Structure formats: structure tokens, C-alpha cells
Amino acid sequence: MLATRGDSMPSQIPEYITSIQINLSDAAAQRPALAIESARVFAKWANVEHVLANAVSMIVGDTTALALIDKFKAKNAQYDAIKIALEGKICCTETRSLIPPLFKLINKAAGPRNKLAHSLWGTIEQLPAALLLTEPKFALKMSRCMLSSPTKTWVEDDNKTNFERGFEGNIDLANEMINILREGTEVWVHNDFNDPLRFLECSIVALTFFTTAAAAKPGSQEAIQALDGLRKILRENESLQ
To answer: Which alpha helices (H) appear in the chain, and where do they start and end?
Structure first.
């Protein structure tokens, strides 16, 4: 359950690919196995939000919890208000001291989820087992480059990609497009989902331990066991950050 380094991480488009025609039409249908892994990330993040809401509700009360969780979602996982509210309500110094590293873990888990949720999904023929995630601002830069390229006509039997045809005679613009795409795009394959899913699962377990520790009587066996479990998860995940 706990993380150990060894899984791959998203990479950039390989340097050997020099002609890129990215397909943004329906990447989920073209890469169904990776779409399923993405759905698992989204589902586990929903579980993180649920367990966090339960913890906040138990510690600060339902009304305050609902307001804080709404802010949490609206601000794309900005935790300051929630952290302050929890720290103000928890009397046990030891439990309170674990709030910052706990939210550091949650933030680590939120990163890949946000990348999947807010990037443009695409595919290219040269990487049939990969999902390409392009940041919107880089996609906008690419669109501007494409609009700056003069419209061309071509025949369909010239064995060139649309990318090569569209920028034929304008190598500088073609290279600029490729550089923008490389800079703003991550290449995800199946193994790249392992760490994000693990961090999400660890966040859920850590939040459960935290809730138990906060609800238990300080110094009780229940509180001690919950704090031990929480510290273990935070310590083992800290080594990956």
C-alpha cells in the first residue's frame, strides 16, 4: 500500500519524434486503458475529499465543514483555511503537529489529478500506448502559431503528414510549434498512474488515522495507535517527495 520508488514518471515527447500531428478529438476512446486509469484517479480523489469532509465535520462542525469544503473545491485544493480551522480546534499538540505534513501529502496526491483534469488530452501515432497531456496555455500558443501559418493546398498522395504540409517552407515556425508542444506536454503511459494512485490511497488512509486520533481521548490506546499509523504513512511517503 505504501509507496516505494520504481514506477515510471510522465516524460516529454521523445526527441526522435520530429513531426507531430496531435489528435485532440477523443483521446479517451483512442486510449481506453489509460482512460480507465484516469477514472481511477478521479474516483480516488473524490474519496479523499469525502474523508477530508468527514474529518473537518467531526472536528469543527457540519456548517463550518460544508463552507470550508466548498472553498477547498472552488480554489483547486487550497488548504490554508481548512488547516487553520483544524489547528484551532485540536488540543493535542502531537496531533496538531502532524497537520502540515498530512496536507503536504494530500497536495502531492492532488497534483496528478489536477493535471489529468485540466489538461488537453491527445494522442499521436508514433506513441500508440501513450496519452499526451498538454497544458491549456501551451495549446493556446500552438493555436496562435498555426494561425500565423499561411493556408496551403496539397495533394493527398505526397506521403507527408498534415503537420509537414502545413509548415512546408517555414521550418522555423514548425520547430517553434514542436518546441512549444514538447515544453507543455507530458507523455503518460500505464505505469505513470501507479504513484498518483498510491499517493491518493495513502492520503485516504492518513486522513482516516488523523480523524481517529483527533476524535480519541489524548493519550488513549486508540489515539496512540492512530498517531503511530499516521506518522508511519507520512514518514514513508516523505521519502518520495
So the answer is: 27-30, 32-60, 62-74, 80-89, 93-97, 99-118, 136-148, 162-166, 171-184, 194-215, 221-238
